[in-house]
Here is the input.
Amino acid sequence: MVEYDVIVIGAGSVGVPTALATAESGLKTLVLDSLPSVAQGDNKHAIGGIRATHSLKSKIWLCQRSIEIFASWKKLYGDDIWWEQGGYCFLAFTNEHEQMLKNTVRQQKEYGLNIEYVDSEKIKELVPGVNDGNLLGGTYSPEDGNSSPLLALHAFYRKSKEFGTQYNFNEEVIDITTKNKKITGVKTNKAEYKTQTVINAAGAHAKNVGNMLNIDLPVVPESHEAGITEPVKKFFSTMVIDIKPATDKKFGNSKNYYFYQNKEGKIIFCLTPEPNIPGLNRSETSVFLPQIAKRMVNLLPRLKNIKIRRTWRGLYPMTPDGSPIIGKVDSVEGYINAVGMCGQGFMVAPGLGELISRVITEKLDSKDYQILEELAYGRDYYKIEDLK
Ligand SMILES: Cc1cc2nc3c(=O)[nH]c(=O)nc-3n(C[C@H](O)[C@H](O)[C@H](O)COP(=O)(O)OP(=O)(O)OC[C@H]3O[C@@H](n4cnc5c(N)ncnc54)[C@H](O)[C@@H]3O)c2cc1C
Here is the structure.
């Protein structure tokens, strides 16, 4: 039986950059995925937003490192992953939201984030044509940006193979074997492999993988929809996030929605439904588009004639507090969580992959310990809620 230093379950947003980092640090790495090729889980459903604008220090630091990786990738390795550093704007239309954003900015600055609360004039500069009726201002974090999830993941995939990672597709993990509470191997529908280290990067299916070891993971998939327009001349670069909830008699309620214009000039958009929609349903609905189109045209009237090319639906692997679950567990030696990415798996993953590699090679620094503590499996999931 072939033996590996590390087996990663899942060739998605998290599994691929994690394998890149483990293989680069010299570990013999195997990635297993039940689907036929890389990025076929929820990576390809992400809209490509990348921000370090969170309120937990763990996610700020992980994403700051991710941004360095995305931003330097083309220069280092030559692949164009459509990285663009256009920033993020969270808009405030009510005094309550203004106060909440101002308080969060104070905290974010303490953790080293480059972010300011700006007035409505600055927002109008960043988002030309924005309807400023009740606009009070918003946050602007210029170092955040966006990239193509598929181009980026394929670039990480190719590089990880150069470092020696092996990928087996169409191979579903059906069991993880242990002896005396230590990992001994992985069984799939096709073969068995020996290893002492397994990384759970199974996205929406992470709970099933945890169950193989009696680890009860609070990860519940939720459906989210997105869409893309035809290309038009570039007129804004920032990600726009409208956090004001909305009610619609015909198409139902929604929480925030967000959009940006990508490198090709297409506007990519996504909305958080209210109530949330738990389950594994990836079939797009007829409700999403009229709901978000109304909100976007109201905010940015010049979008009223733009044509929508397509919409799609994917899954957020949600946790109760909206943050990932990372690191080892007490009950099984050799098992590592990289699960519960919520709506942030693409942006967190490159930084996270390097952290997981340092967990295995025991090269953790003081920031790593703080991240692992904040995102530990055993934390109180009902204490803090981060920006989702
Ligand atoms: C509409 C939408 C918009 C989004 N926008 C963004 C965004 O702008 N920015 C951002 O950062 N995130 C975004 N996300 C979230 C992001 O897509 C997810 O957080 C991320 O893809 C999760 O990464 P993952 O590696 O955990 O899961 P995935 O990328 O889904 O990978 C998991 C892989 O594990 C495999 N697998 C599962 N079980 C097994 C098994 N037993 N054996 C073998 N293989 C297995 C699956 O086949 C899959 O390929 C968005 C999501 C949606 C739906």
About this structure: The first helix runs from residue 15 to 24.
